C-alpha cells in the first residue's frame, strides 16, 4: 500500500516536472529576432520566457570588434531604407534614434572612385547605368509578380531588360549594385524576390537613390541598438548565456531543448531563431526528424556569405571618396572598397575594408589570413601604381561561413525557391515556431526582416497562449507541385516599409 502510494507520488512528481508551466516560452537565439520576440511577449504580459544563447552577449549577427583603435562591424553595419518618403521608418532606425546610436549617411553610389588593373580608370558613367538597370530590374520583377508569371533568375531579368555586361567595367558595376546587396550573383538569385526585397526596403520612386542608407559608427557597436533595448525589459533570470542547443524535441504539447552539457530545458512553446545556415548544416538535431516539406524548404533557400576584410595602415594613401570600385578581370575579385578614413566616418584612422561575396567569399574564408592579405595587397598595388603602397599594420576578417552559430551571413532567395517553400520554411511544427531574417517575405536578409519576424511569430505564440481557439497551424504546403509551386499567388506589392 505504502509502495503504491510512493510510486503514485513519484508519477505525479514526474508529470509535474514535465509540465513546469503551461506558458513558458523558450526563445532559442539572442539575435534581433529573439530579442524582439522577447519584447513582444513581455509587452503582452507574458514574462515567463527563457532566452537561450550560445554566446555571452546578445546581438547575433550584429557583431562589433575593436580594430585599429576603432569599433568596426563584422556583421550588420547599415540601416537600409531608414526613412522612406512615405510610410513609417525602418524599426531599426527608430531604435537607433531612441538609443542614441551614432550613424552617418553612406553615399554608397554617389561618392565613388573607380579603378582597374592599371590604376585609376573612370567608369563612373557605367556605374550610373548599372544603378538604372537595377531599378529597371526591380520594377519589371514587380510587374511579373503582379501578373502571376513564373519566377526567373535575375540574370534572365537583366538580359530581358537589355543589360548584358561584357566588359570588366560593366561586370564590376553590376557586381557593385547587385552582389553587394544579395551576396550572390544574378544567376543565383530570384528575379521576383529581388524585386520584392528592393521594392519594400528602398524607395524606388523616381528611380533615384535616396539618402537613406546609414552606417553605424558608434564606438559601443551597432549592437547597442538591440542590447540597450533588451536592457529595458530583460531580467538576468530571463537569459541563459554560454548555452549551446544541440537538440530540440517538439510535439503538439511542448518543446524541450538539450544543451551541449546534456541539460534539458522544457517549455510549452519554443521559438527557434537560429540562422538558416545552422538549420541547413544539422548543427541542431530535431526530434522527431523534420518533415520532408520542411527539409526541402530549408535546403532550398540559400545562406549566402558576405565578408568584410579590414586593413589598418599607418596612413591613408587611397581615394578621398567613400567608396572605391576596382574592375578585376575576375568578376567580384576584391572589387568593392570602402574607406573608413573619411571625414564622415573615422578620419585619421588609416582603416579601409574590402568586401567579398558568394563563392569568392567562401574561397577567401578557406584560405590562411596571410594569403588573403597578400592577394588584397597586390590589388591595392594595381589600384595605386604610382604610390609606394605601405604594408598594412593589421588585417582582420570574420569567417561567417564556417562559424557553426551562423554558417553564412544572410539568406538569399534563389529562382527555384517558390512562395510555397517560403510558407513551409516559416510554418510551425506543433509548439515549435521559427523566426529570423530568413522567414521574412518582404525583407529577407535584413535586420528589419529579423525584427519584423520576431514581432510576427511572437504574435502567433501569443494568440495560442491567450486565445486557444485562435491557435491554428500556420500555412504550409506539404507537396509543392508544378501547379501551385511556381505561382506567387496574388500579393500586394504596394511600396510600404510597414
Ligand atoms: C557580414 C554581414 C553583414 C550584414 N550587413 C547587414 C546590414 O548592413 N544591414 C542589415 O539590415 N542586415 C545586415 N546583415 C544581416 C543581419 O545581420 C541579419 O539579418 C540579422 O542580424 C539576423 O538576425 P536573426 O535574429 O534572424 O539571427 P541571428 O543574429 O543569427 O541570431 C541567432 C542567434 O542564435 C545563436 N545561436 C545559433 N546557434 C545556436 C545554438 N545551437 N545554440 C544557442 N544559440 C545559438 C547565435 O549566436 C545568434 O545570436 C548582415 C549580416 C552579416 C553576417
Ligand atoms: C560565458 O563565458 C565567458 C567565457 O568563458 C565568460 O567570461 C562569461 O563570464 C560567461 N558568461 C556567463 C553569463 O556565464
Ligand atoms: C593595362 O596596361 C597594359 C600596358 O600598358 C595594357 O596592355 C592593358 O591593355 C591595360 N589594361 C587595362 C584594363 O587598361
Ligand atoms: C509590383 C510593384 O508594385 N512594383 C513596384 C516597385 O516600385 C516601383 C517604383 O515605385 C513601381 O513602379 C513598381 O510598380
TrEMBL record:
Enzyme Commission number(s): 1.4.3.-
UniProt-listed GO biological process terms: polyamine catabolic process
Signal peptide: 1-18
Binding site for FAD: 53-54, 245
Domain of life, source organism: Eukaryota
Cofactor(s) for this UniProt protein: FAD
Keywords: FAD, Flavoprotein, Oxidoreductase, Signal
MF annotations from Gene Ontology: oxidoreductase activity
Membrane-spanning residues: none
Protein name as it appears in the record: Amine oxidase
Naturally occurring in which organism (per UniProt): Guyanagaster necrorhizus
